[in-house]
Structures are given as C-alpha cells and as structure tokens.
Predict the structure.
Amino acid sequence: MHRLPYVALMLFLAAGPAGAHPHVIVDVKTELLLNAAGQVTGLRQHWLFDKNYTEAALEDMDTNHDGTFTSAELRPLTDENIKSLREYDYFTVVRQKGERVETSAPIDTDQTWSKGLLTLHFTLPFKHPLDPRKSEVVAKIYDPDFFISFALAAHNAARLEGNAPAGCAVTVKPVPTDAELESTRTMLATKGVDWQPENNEDFGALFAQPITLSCAS
C-alpha cells in the first residue's frame, strides 16, 4: 500500500480496494534543465493535484485562518510529500541508451495553492549531466501501481530551460488512445509470466507518456 503523502493514504482507505482506478490525479509540467555546455542536469517538476486530494491535504493547514495558504503554511505538507516520495524514486524514470539515470535528492522544493488546487514543485538533479547529442534522453513520470494517475499537462507539458544545443528539441507523446491501450493489454495477455518489457522497465512504463529530448545528427 502506498504511503505517498499521508492524506493520499487516507483517501485510499476511504475509497476501499483500489482496483484498476487511481485515487489521486496529478497533472504534470516539467522543465529539462541544461547547463552552459548543453548537458541535461535535471528535471524541474510541477505537480498539480486534483480537487479531492487538495481538500483533504489542506485540512488544518490554514494556521492564520485567512482563507488562503502560503508556502510557509504548506511547508510541513511539502516536506512530508518529498520525504514519502523518496521510497518511490519520485515516480520519475529517466533513461539514456536504455540505461536508467541516477538522480540525487530533490532541491528547491515548494508547494503553492492557486484557484483551489495544490501544486508541488521540486527539482530532481541528475548525479551526472547527460549529453543529448550522444543519445536521446527519455523521461517518464508515472506510478507503476496506478494508485496515482500522472498525466502530462495538455499545454506546455515539457520545455527546455537553459543552453539547448542547436538542433535539439523536446517532444511529448500524446495520451494513448483507448485503442492503443487495448492493444497494449492484448499484447501483455499473450506474454508468459516471466516476460519483461525492454530496458528492464516495469509494466506501468508501457502506459506512461514519454518526454523525449533528441538532437538532429
């Protein structure tokens, strides 16, 4: 059972068995951060939580009772979120040449409240910079257990921040159609119990939207 933030667990218990339906919905925007040499140094992420999660999470957070929620008031929740996410590698998988990229602990963590919804902000640095001119960089943000539904935002879901090399661009694969999802499920049904996706990915990765940074040769 997830322990993502503690209020997510509360929602899960209230809803009963998870089944195939997520209990927390998150819209994601991300920036791929590049240094002066054109190397990718990390991801800056922004997670917009759904209304139900927000309402549960905000209980007792308005310490000055003014009807708004400042970053300072939300700091205990932010710290709890980041701490709990560590166990799940922040639901973020980055690969280059099929190899998983090692990340460091998040920095620049914050949480904001706007238009009745919470957004968690954090930067996930890479332990070693990646050169996108050598091979494309692919990031996936997803929950392999489908407890949380991560969806890339409909507009400006991913962008480059910093010194992007000439000929490099970031693309976001569209949300899978129902037909594509059914095709994936049908394919999985034909595989044996020992079958594994490529690159040692888990099954959840097959349903995730990849963010890809590639450079023209």
Residues 6-177+209-215 form one domain. Residues 168 and 215 are 4 Å apart (CA to CA). The longest helix spans residues 71-85.
